[in-house]
Amino acid sequence: MAGLPLLNRRPGWMKGATALTTRWLESTLEVARWENMRRAGRRWGWWGAGVGAMLGLIAYAPAPWLAKAVVSASDGRLLLADAKGTIWRGDAVAVLTGGPGSRDARALPGRLNWSMRLGLQGVSLVLQQDCCIQTPLVLLVQPAWSGATVRVATQAQPGQPVQTAGEIGHWPAAWLGGLGTPWNTLQLSGVLRVSTRDLSFSWTQGRLRVQGQAEVALDNVASRITTLDRLGSYRLDVVGDAEGQVQLNLGTLDGALSLTGNGGVTPSGVRFRGEARASEASQGALDNLLNIIGRRQGERSVISIG
After folding, report:
1. How does pLDDT run across 29-43, given as a tens digit for each residue?
2. Considering Cα of 70, then 71, then 76, then 80, what sign does the dihedral take?
3. What residue spans define the domains of the chain?
């Protein structure tokens, strides 16, 4: 029995083979681990490069990209011509047109400047133009799962609270001539002023809802197709009701030409019914104008849209 332990001993050549095999396996596993780490590093490198390129593309996206988005959203009626800079900060010439295929176009003097920044509550777009938007106009865009909300405000100075009530801008009435018929025929002059109060637009599941109020005033309007120096001043009230629909009310403040009417904006489009009348002393001078702006019925002209 004393010799049995000798039988349990392994020969030296077997010990050497086992050690060699073990070292080979360890070396192979180490190489495999290194290859896996190298592949993972390469994948992360590609991901990092892709994310960096994407962030760089977003940060330096050229202004013409924004111009194309505006053309698409306005159905070709508002153009940002000669856009320069980036989508985050740039400027362009604001042009009104009659849409695709139209030959009518009117540009505002000077350049429209914009700046856009991201915040915790969404995107803030600030617009300013020397001729028409002297107090910066702020559009606060808040995205949601089923759409987005755009709130209209002004901000006198950076860092100050925004104001949701007051005038947001004034534009020459002649700019409307770029929209084509009938504006290009009327050739209006005067000033178009827009004021808002708690105005917001919401897109929810493809439907537009409007809340708040807007007042569109046309001051000291004149037209080249009449001999009168002045037609009058007018106001269009735009009111979003509790259901998000839009009510329109047109009235005359003063002048030889009287304009009245009401209507609304529904998912099916704009519907408006109104009429135009000339004062007794101005009927001869305004006869041609009444024939253009509506359907003539005696001394009045009926305006019908939708």
Report:
1. 666 666 666 665 556
2. positive
3. 14-55, 164-305
Q: Do residues 221 and 234 touch, judged by C-beta distance below 8 A? A: yes
For residue 152, which of 215, 85, 80 has the smallest C-alpha distance? 215
Amino acid at 66: L
Cα 77 from Cα 98, distance rounded (Å): 6
Strand partners, 270: 265
Is the Cα dihedral 306, 171, 117, 47 positive or negative? positive
CA 279 to each of CA 254, 270, 298: distance values in angstroms, whole numbers, following the listed order: 11, 29, 14
**Taking the alpha carbons of 162, 61, 149, 265 in that order, is the dihedral positive or negative?**
positive
Quote the CA–CA distance of 193 and 234 in Å, as a whole number. Answer: 11
Contact 152, 139 (CB under 8 A): yes
The reply to whether the predicted model has a pTM over 0.85 is no
Contact between 154 and 163 under an 8 Å Cβ cutoff? The reply is: yes
- Does 26 score more than 80 pLDDT? no
Is there a contact between 256 and 228 (Cβ–Cβ < 8 Å)? yes
Q: Which residues, 6+ apart, have CB-to-CB distance to 179 below 8 Å?
A: 77, 96, 97, 98, 104
